[in-house]
Write a structure and sequence with these properties.
Among the domains are: 135 residues, Ribulose 1,5 Bisphosphate Carboxylase/Oxygenase (2-Layer Sandwich); 84 residues, Rossmann fold, CATH 3.40.50.790. Helix content is 27%, strand content 18%. By secondary structure, the chain is α/β, with parallel strands linked by helices. The chain has a seven-stranded mixed sheet. The chain has a three-stranded parallel sheet with strand order 7-6-8, sandwiched between helices. Strands 1-2 form a two-stranded antiparallel sheet. Helix 2 crosses helix 8 and helix 3 packs parallel to helix 7. The chain is built from ten helices and twelve strands.
Length: 353
């Protein structure tokens, strides 16, 4: 006897006897294959085709170069305004001294206006990242600039220091290091009892460099070396620099490789104007050390800003640094740096390399 499960349909002769009709005896139907219904739904979705203009055959299936505005602002061809009322885009940007720019920001942040007298003063430094060759560009870099007048930068900077001598350990602790130690500290890190990732900066004295090599794999780029100024004999000075200095980074534009930008905080508006100016000078001098060996400007424009105001005031950076590259000056400064290095520092640099 046939069951409903085994028989899906029966052929039934109509009363006329001329034709056959298929009669379904069960409600169970064959399930669609996996993904069939999803494909059917996608077919029903109307696809909008974007119209694209004519593209030459040799440029098809390639990225089309979009014309972008040059980020290097050059308004030297514009005329100088003769009075205080003018349309800004048709004239050159006014250049202020640092003292004048600070005073302008203090006026806008007065209690009668923004009412933020202790707002932070920010510097934007625009760079020409062109290298020595036309096809080469300066790589992105991150540095710490030492400044003479410290301020609250709002960062939690933990510093770990490696040294052997007891006197150096005492000096490092007095300078404000988070953790100071010698060989026993290296053992704790090797055993996993202490994590290096908890510390932003690693500083070392040359007397412990031989034992510190065991942690080179863990430290990687943070391994102390003279170029990053994390290896030296004057631990107190290095600790002060990394705890109170200005941390900044230069990044190239994604589409314009010869344009770089640095954003840094140099203090607050309630600080003395001369102290703020000295901080800016030290920052510009530190940035200028990364200048490539080529003619032309490296620092192209410097703007002073202070939130929440959108006002940006241009200052002249070449009051504090040379405008153009001078081979003789660079050579003299390099020789002076070498002469200032102690035999221990020279040995440490050789060991680190």
């Amino acid at each position: 006897m046939l069951t409903l499960l085994s028989i899906r349909a029966l052929a039934v002769r109509q009363p006329t006897g001329e034709a056959l009709r298929c009669l379904h005896l069960t409600a169970v139907t064959e399930a669609a294959r996996k993904g069939t219904r999803e494909k059917a739904r996608k077919k029903k979705v109307k696809v909008e085709v974007k119209k694209v203009g004519f593209i030459p055959h040799n440029q098809r299936d390639k990225k089309i170069n979009v014309k972008r505005a040059d980020k290097h602002v050059d308004d030297s061809w514009k005329q100088v305004p003769k009075d205080d009322v003018y349309v800004g885009r048709y004239y050159r940007w006014p250049v202020y001294t640092v003292a004048e720019a600070i005073q302008c920001h203090r006026e806008t942040h007065h209690p009668s206006m923004y009412n933020v007298p202790n707002a932070s003063l920010n510097v934007e430094i625009e760079l020409n990242m062109q290298g020595e060759k036309a096809t080469r560009f300066v790589d992105n870099f991150q540095r710490m600039a030492m400044i003479p007048h410290k301020f609250h930068h709002g960062e939690d900077r933990k510093i770990i220091v490696f040294t052997k001598e007891n006197e150096e350990i005492t000096k490092a602790r007095e300078a404000g290091a988070t953790l100071v130690g010698g060989v026993e500290l290296i053992k704790d890190i090797t055993n996993g009892e202490l994590l290096l990732s908890d510390y932003q900066f690693i500083i070392a004295h040359p007397n412990i460099l031989a034992e510190l090599v065991a942690l080179r794999g863990l430290m990687k780029r943070k391994f102390p070396n003279p170029k990053s100024e994390t290896l030296g004999t004057n631990l107190a000075e290095m600790i002060t620099k990394f705890s109170n200095g200005i941390s900044y980074s230069a990044t190239k534009d994604e589409y314009q490789q010869n344009f770089g930008l640095i954003k840094a905080n140099v203090g607050t508006l309630d600080m003395d104007a001369q102290h703020l100016e000295e901080n800016i000078r030290f920052l510009l001098q530190d940035v200028n050390t990364m200048r490539p060996k080529r003619d032309g400007r490296f620092i192209t424009r410097v703007l002073l800003k202070s939130a929440p105001s959108s006002e940006q005031l241009k200052i002249d950076p070449f009051v504090y640094i040379p405008e153009l590259y001078d081979k003789n000056v660079a050579k003299a400064s390099k020789e002076a740096r070498k002469e200032a290095e102690t035999p221990e520092q020279q040995a440490a640099a050789a060991a680190a390399n």
